[in-house]
Design a protein that fits this description.
This protein has 112 residues and is mainly β. The chain contains no helices and eleven strands. The strands form two sheets. Strands 2, 4, 5, 6, 9, 10 and 11 form a seven-stranded mixed beta sheet that branches. A four-stranded antiparallel beta sheet has the order 1-3-8-7, with no helix packed on it. A hairpin with a 5-residue loop joins strand 5 and strand 6.
């Protein structure tokens, strides 16, 4: 059974940083890419980043240069490091594997 769990979301002020985590079980994490998405009320879920199995990553233009990623293969966990956060980054952030398994999301709120 595949399980995806996001964590790390909270309220932060503009300009601050935050690290989200995505822990996956039930797949071979070492060879499984994963994706981050985010969603705001009334809008569709939008792609944020793809983290390849080797740790390399691609980011949406809206976060490129501010967000980075890493993988902890020993803990089956991928991290999304979010820097210079803006109010527009406020959303529920979701992790996805194999294009069909989703976590429940973690809320990120950027507000002064």
């Amino acid at each position: 059974q595949v399980r995806v769990v996001e964590s790390g979301g909270r309220l932060v002020q503009p300009g601050e940083s935050l690290r989200l985590s995505c822990t996956v079980s039930g797949v071979n994490f070492k060879i499984t890419p994963l994706k981050w998405f985010r969603q705001t009320p009334g809008n569709e879920r939008e792609w944020v980043a793809t983290i390849a199995a080797d740790g390399s990553a691609n980011f949406d233009d809206s976060v490129k240069g501010r967000f980075t990623s890493s993988r902890d293969w020993a803990r089956n966990t991928a991290h999304l490091q979010m820097n210079s956060l803006k109010p527009d980054d406020t959303a529920v952030y979701y992790c996805n594997v194999r294009d069909r398994f989703w976590g429940r999301g973690t809320q990120v709120t950027v507000s002064s």
